[in-house]
Amino acid sequence: MTEIETAPTRPSSLDLAGELLRLRSRHDGAGLATVALPTALLGSARQWGPRQLRAAATVSWEQPSDDLHLFGFGRALDLGSAAGAPLAAAAPALREAADELRAGDVDPLARPRFFGGARFDASSPHHDPAWEAFGAWRFVLPEVIVALRGGRLSASLTLAVRPQQTREEVAVAVAAAIAGVAAAPTPPSIGSARYQRTGPDAAHWRSAVSGALSEIASGRYRKAVLALQARCHSPRPHNVAATLTSLAERYEGCFVFGYRLGDSSWVGASPELLVSLERGRVRALSLAGTCARGRDAEEDEELARTLLASEKERSEHDLVVRATREALDPLCADLSVPDAPRLLRMTGIQHLQTPIEGRAATGVDVLDSLLAMHPTPAVGGSPREPALEAIARLEGMDRGWYAGPIGWMDMNGEGAFAVALRSALLHGREALLYAGAGIVAGSDPDRELAEAELKLQPLLEALHGA
């Protein structure tokens, strides 16, 4: 008897539709379901690298130093709130949606996640129309997640299904979701375009800093972080994918994020981990105290020694460390805080950093930690409430999502959020860039302006394709 060998059957949209229906029918009817997406169904997209995936993705979250690249396509669920709603209102909505999702056997790397962020201060009286669509907070659960790590690509598919749907009807939705991955727009070229830049208003900045220094001297608060905005106009639409690629290649130690909403994109490369919870471990990074990099190794070391020895910079840094400890201590069974800060060196800039880590208490999820932490004194001030009031009054602008949390949460309540720094809102030919500086006793308006300008450089260079 001759044994006949048969080639393995290639999975189809119908097969995935059947799996999605089975997942929901075994539980509580209509709702979201997630299945593994065989890479064979991705067509040419399965051979893409980060550059191509960035061009098509609805959302992206990358940690280049860890070789982690997450890309989301489409929207299986979009949760958000109009301006004015507190970030705390996002927690029950996200937890309820996570509880209702049913997932099959999915590669953990491509597991379903909510990607999103929030305004720095939902109660701010300033409202820029450019931020209106983003709302107070917004999170998206992508239909397709493609994950890259160590040269390995994996994917998952999430859709809303009803048990009474036919397999053929669900298969149509499956095919449409998969097709959306390959629908990468043709990006405009990037290069030596001449940008017209307006802002920041140096006179307004000096006035705001002087006002803060007077209030600090009178004892109203100890620190306020004032931000500035620069507006750039390009002769052609911004290339979001190329901007993200430039940031990922130049700032490997940062969290590189992209969030598209209609014709707008919120992009950045943040050096600051706000908080993460993975495998039961809570992590945060206290980041405050800044100076430039040197033109050579000798000058670089001298600048670093000056930063570490600066009473002003160390005092500002210690404020952030103490606030982080106080926020996380009730949520952790143990907490480890180094005695002294280290240096975080990046292209063009260096900071004082203190990594903090602990074991999460039973029942604590990443949202608990996020709500306890935001906003830290590194981007708000201390004490929190008078500093926030001063920021709204002295800055005179809408920060939008600048300095707010940006990141992801999975269905088990774990996740990672960065502080949205070194960031820009891109819309057509316009870009809004943001940076800030901590104002404490002894701050000098001109030096703080120079520091904020230094922090604008990563985005300016990325937009120019440098």
Explain what the structure shows:
With about 475 residues, the protein is an alpha+beta fold. Helices cover about 30% and strands about 30% of the residues. Helix 2 (about 50-55) packs antiparallel against helix 6 (about 240-250). The longest helix is centred in the C-terminal third of the chain and has 20 residues, at about 445-465. Strand 8 (about 145-150) and strand 9 form a beta hairpin. The chain starts with 12 loop residues before the first helix and ends with a helix. The chain is globular and about 70 Å long. The protein is built from 11 helices and 23 strands. The strands form 2 sheets. Strands 1, 2, 3, 5, 8, 9, 10, 11, 12, 13, 19, 22 and 23 form a 13-stranded mixed sheet that branches.
In short:
With 466 residues, the protein is α+β, with helices and mostly antiparallel strands. 31% of the residues lie in helices and 32% in strands.
User: What value does the Rg take, in angstroms?
Assistant: 23 Å
Q: Count of DSSP helices?
A: 11
The biggest beta sheet, please? 13 strands, mixed
Structural class: alpha+beta
What's the rounded overall pLDDT mean? Answer: 89
Give the amount of beta strand, in percent: 25-35%
Q: Can you tag this structure with a few keywords?
A:
466 residues, ten-stranded antiparallel sheet, 32% strand, 23 strands, 11 helices, 13-stranded mixed sheet, alpha+beta
Write the layout of secondary structure elements.
Layout (H helix, E strand, L loop, with lengths): L12 H13 L5 E6 L13 H7 L2 E5 L4 E6 L3 E5 L8 H11 L1 E2 L9 E6 L18 E5 L2 E6 L2 E10 L5 H16 L13 E3 L3 H16 L5 E11 L6 H11 L4 E7 L2 E7 L2 E6 L2 E12 L4 H13 L1 H18 L3 E5 L5 E5 L2 E12 L5 H8 L7 E2 L1 H12 L9 E6 L4 E5 L3 E5 L2 E10 L5 H20 L2
Parallel strand pairs: 1-5
Antiparallel strand pairs: 1-9, 2-3, 2-12, 3-8, 4-7, 6-7, 6-20, 8-9, 10-11, 11-19, 11-23, 12-13, 13-22, 14-15, 14-21, 15-18, 16-18, 17-18, 20-21, 22-23
Helix pairs in contact: 1-4, 2-6, 5-11, 6-11
